[in-house]
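Reopening: structure tokens for the adenosine monophosphate complex, inputs below.
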Amino acid sequence: MTSIFSKIIAGDIPCYKIAEDDRFFAFLDINPVAKGHTLVVPKEEIDYIYDLEDELLGDLFKFSKKVAAAIEKVIPCERIGLTVLGLEVPHAHVHLVPLDSRGFIDFKNKVQLEKDEFVAIAQQIAQNFS
Ligand code: AMP
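Re-run output (same inputs, fresh job):
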């Protein structure tokens, strides 16, 4: 079955896109735990992150590093945390989450954002991606 992330990558479902290349795609999490909470996914639909080939897994982290650098330029934070959950969407992905001074990610504590805030954040991060 096609994952919701594959549908986003194909453009069949809208998203707040940050960046993509031929193998990876980054977009804002629709139910964020912090402003700038971003998901990075391989375009190849593989459920479990540890099933990615070593090279693809390594390159997913390299791509995530570039996305994190762009987030840091836009969202005031101490660091960008990187977490893997994968309990909800069976398409491997990493969560990049701006951390405050507590250095703590609470996935039960969501941030409410209006659509125009998502659009503005995604645009700013995308502009800083290189
Ligand atoms: P998990 O699979 O446990 O890592 O969680 C999946 C994440 O994907 C959650 O944080 C959701 O908020 C996020 N998510 C699910 N559907 C969408 C979507 N259509 N656009 C953006 N993020 C999504």
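The mean pLDDT is 97. The longest strand covers residues 94-99. Marking as resolved unless the reporter disagrees.
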